[in-house]
Design a protein that fits this description.
By secondary structure, the protein is α/β, with parallel strands linked by helices. 35% of the residues lie in helices and 19% in strands. It is built from seven helices and ten strands. The strands form two sheets. Strands 1, 2, 3, 4, 5, 6 and 7 form a seven-stranded mixed beta sheet that branches.
């Protein structure tokens, strides 16, 4: 009978672990970084929240988007702008295996390219933005100095069904060194903990039976009247 008691306690412990694990993996941070600014922002962000991270990588490596007067970067953005509903307009990225079904909140961290969202991130959102419908969406944009309104517009075009945070976060190069406090203030401003709260039922709500054992590990058929007993793994005095 002691084995039964231990098995029951192990089951309860497993349920607690399962709830804890599911609650800690509900946010995904998706980012693309060309000059390392966004990578540093993501490192800062994930030091303040519990989240998984997905980095978007262009399929063709080593490209210099800023070379020759930003010729390549401009060409990629112009192709998207000319035909935004055609998959062939978007530059290829490395395959993505992360399933969005595992997450309820997506935080997008992207650079601004000439008043628009960076082309590789646009590719990812074109391919997967539809799967983000109904999910909470946060947007963090890194830029040299330009306003992020064009990036916000791109994001809402590519993820039209998202439930966007009340504010976006703009971190420009001048205040990049203060990103820790900027991220912290942003998380507070958008009520991150409340917005992303997971309303999991408690163990008490999951039909867990109340089990009583004596101090020798023998399970009791009913609730005891008086004495010291083990109740669902905890020693209690019954009076």
């Amino acid at each position: 009978m002691a084995k039964i008691a231990l098995g029951t306690w192990a089951w309860v412990a497993a349920m607690l672990t399962l709830l804890s694990t599911s609650a800690s993996a509900k946010t995904l941070v998706v980012y693309y970084s060309y000059t390392n600014y966004c990578r540093e922002i993501v490192t800062t962000l994930t030091s303040q929240i519990d989240a998984d991270v997905l980095e978007i990588q262009p399929e063709e490596k080593g490209l210099k988007y800023e070379a020759n007067g930003y010729a390549l970067g401009t060409q990629l953005l112009n192709a998207i702008k000319a035909n935004p509903n055609n998959a062939s307009s978007y530059p290829a990225i490395d395959p993505v295996t992360t399933s969005l079904n595992d997450y309820e909140t997506i935080v997008i961290v992207t650079p601004l390219w000439w008043s628009q969202m960076a082309a590789p991130m646009q590719t990812y959102l074109f391919n997967y933005g539809g799967q983000m419908a109904g999910k909470h969406i946060g947007l963090i944009v890194s830029s040299a100095s330009s306003s992020i309104s064009g990036v916000v517009a791109d994001c809402k075009r590519l993820v039209p069904g998202g439930k966007y945070f009340s504010e976006n976060l703009w971190i420009n190069h001048a205040n990049h060194s203060r990103r820790a406090s900027l991220v912290k203030n942003w998380l507070t401003a958008v009520n991150y903990n409340s917005v992303t709260a997971i309303n999991e039922p408690s163990i008490a709500d999951k039909d867990v039976p109340t089990c009583y054992y004596d101090l020798n590990g023998r399970r009791l058929a009913q609730k005891p009247l008086k004495g010291i007993y083990i109740v669902n793994g905890e020693k209690r005095v019954m009076e």
